[in-house]
Amino acid sequence: MTTTDSSPSRDFIRNIIAKDLKANKNECRVVTRFPPEPNGYLHIGHAKSICLNFDIAAEFGGVCNLRFDDTNPSKEEVEYVESIKSDVRWLGFDWYNMLFYASDYFDQMCRYAVQLIKDGKAYVCSLNTEEIREYRGTLTKPGKDSPYRKRSVEENLDLFERMRAGEFEDGSHVLRAKIDMASPNMNMRDPTIYRIRRVAHHRTGNKWCIYPMYDFAHCLSDSIEGITHSICTLEFEDNRPLYDWFLDRLNVLHPQQIEFARLNLSYTVLSKRKLVQLVEQGHVTGWDDPRMPTVSGLRRRGYTPESIRDFCERIGVAKRDSMVDIALLEHCIREDLNEKSPRVMGVLRPLRVVIDNYPEDQVEELEGPYHPEDQGMGSRKLPFSRELYIERDDFREDPPKKYFRLAPGREVRLRYAYYIRCEEVVKDEQTGEVVELHCTYDPKTRGGWSSDGRKVKGTLHWVSAPHALKAEVRLYDRLFEKANPGDQKDVPDFTACLNPRSLEALTSCRVEPSLAGAAPGSRCQFERLGYFCVDSVDSYPEALVFNRTVTLRDSWAKIEKKAKK
Ligand code: ATP
Ligand code: MG
């Protein structure tokens, strides 16, 4: 499905908002928010939510807040806050001065909790965690009232104040909403509002030893910030009655919660818990490992913000969960890089070629355009000499049918250079491995074209051996072997589905000299091999490291073509 229509009614969320505006709801304001918990790096699923919230705000003349949902101090870190900010910015979005933290509202939330107690809508419960679970019942069995449910308002106020003052141990008391222990919706069975946790918070330090639970903190943060449309993923559908309950009981500004289907991507996991596990157990080199579906991993791999935004637009928003083919994401980056990337030549697995009839000390400067369709990108000089490297794969001693590359006695074109013919094959005496080819060139084919109309079927990329730069090239494959690694019934641990061949590092590659000093993060297409970018962590001007972003073969385009037939 390709959505290019940018009218505000292209999905059900935009429809709701357009209708609200027409009805003058919320005084015609639109305020959305992106509310990450700073307990990990952002992934491509978050990017979907970011695009949705920021784009909607922009389209309807509203604003989108960035709010850190930092209510769980034990898992949260400043490092995550900083990475999230820089990832949102990199994706191309701006929260202006609308940067907030749920922890900024702790005082106000506490006052709201006191108000619920005074209204008889909340009580301090002294069951332990285990007992609370037992009393809660199950999906098929109603829960039982806690014996502390009938505590008086005065006793509750006193206990809650002492919880806050630090008089009690972790887990000895919690504050709970008094709703309905028999509700078919488990979320409504007297959910916990506050718990005691003697943990320092990355922003409030040791000021608090009680922390609000997500369901309480989230709706109140939305309300305090004047959010109009609180867009979240489908798992929160059953939490909506609770979201509404808190806001109705407290009689405060009431944003509308709207759920959409989260992004699931094939051959990928998009759960922070699982991504943390990959990092902590060393299955990847870090959050920004180029195989990770994190924004920082995709960036390091060579993805552009434009391609990720394009992907998020194409997948659209729906009400039902589904799995998106990772080939679509790859298609989006190919389309973008096809336009933007200069074409250059690099040889991954070099095979030495000696041109016997080329003068020994001669070097010619040939020229190749950086882009076949975009002359504005200019061109670069390609030194040509007697000794070259070609790709090992581009030579076969016994070529199979339809193999049009180099073979003994056969002639091919070297891109932008000359026709060459293979005259002799030199092998390692011990192993039988081909170590060098001796060829002749035809001086009348300069530029790669023959004046006598003689045709060749193969065109190879190459570099001049004395001029080429050494480089490391990292080739990536899918991180997982199964399309749905997070949901394998027969495999108890998703890490068992990891693809052992997801990274292949080639350390003796040769690239053309125009790449000298290539800046970290810069991108190019190595002709015939794919799109690459200079690694932003391990590459140095004198020791280049390239990541392959994506190959040239577009399986999504094929799928689309088939679907159209
Ligand atoms: P995870 O399930 O990966 O741990 P989370 O929902 O706990 O993610 P948050 O930091 O709370 O992570 O997410 C911030 C926002 O991003 C939320 O509004 C959430 O709904 C949204 N989001 C998270 N994962 C996805 C996804 N796969 N697709 C779309 N939106 C997502
Ligand atoms: Mg969450």
Can you describe what's shown?
The chain has three domains: 12-260, Rossmann fold (3-Layer(aba) Sandwich); 272-342 and 472-564, Ribosomal Protein L25, Chain P (Beta Barrel); 346-460, Ribosomal Protein L25, Chain P, CATH 2.40.240.10. The chain has helices spanning 12-22, 44-59, 78-91, 106-118, 129-136, 153-165, 214-224, 240-250, 272-280, 295-301, 305-315, 326-340, 555-564; strands spanning 31-34, 63-68, 99-101, 122-125, 174-177, 192-196, 210-212, 229-233, 256-260, 343-344, 346-347, 350-355, 364-369, 379-384, 387-391, 411-414, 419-427, 434-441, 459-460, 462-464, 469-476, 503-511, 523-526, 530-534, 544-550. By secondary structure, it is α/β, with parallel strands linked by helices. Strands 10-23-24-25-21-22-11 form a seven-stranded mixed β-sheet, covered by helices on one side. A seven-stranded mixed β-sheet has the order 19-16-17-18-12-15-20, with no helix packed on it. Strands 4-5-6-7 form a four-stranded antiparallel β-sheet. Residues 1-6 have low confidence and may be disordered. The radius of gyration is 31 Å and the shape is elongated. Adenosine-5'-triphosphate binds at residues 35-37, 45-46, 48-49, 69, 232-233, 262-263, 270-273.
Please give a handful of descriptors for the protein shown.
single chain; Ribosomal Protein L25, Chain P; binds magnesium ion; 565 residues; seven-stranded mixed sheet
Write the layout of secondary structure elements.
Elements: H1 12-22, E1 31-34, H2 44-59, E2 63-68, H3 78-91, E3 99-101, H4 106-118, E4 122-125, H5 129-136, H6 153-165, E5 174-177, E6 192-196, E7 210-212, H7 214-224, E8 229-233, H8 240-250, E9 256-260, H9 272-280, H10 295-301, H11 305-315, H12 326-340, E10 343-344, E11 346-347, E12 350-355, E13 364-369, E14 379-384, E15 387-391, E16 411-414, E17 419-427, E18 434-441, E19 459-460, E20 462-464, E21 469-476, E22 503-511, E23 523-526, E24 530-534, E25 544-550, H13 555-564
Parallel strand pairs: 1-2, 2-3, 8-9, 10-23, 12-18, 16-19, 21-25
Antiparallel strand pairs: 4-5, 5-6, 6-7, 11-22, 12-15, 13-14, 15-20, 16-17, 17-18, 21-22, 23-24, 24-25
Helix pairs in contact: 2-11, 7-8, 11-12
Adenosine-5'-triphosphate binds next to helix 2, strand 8 and helix 9.
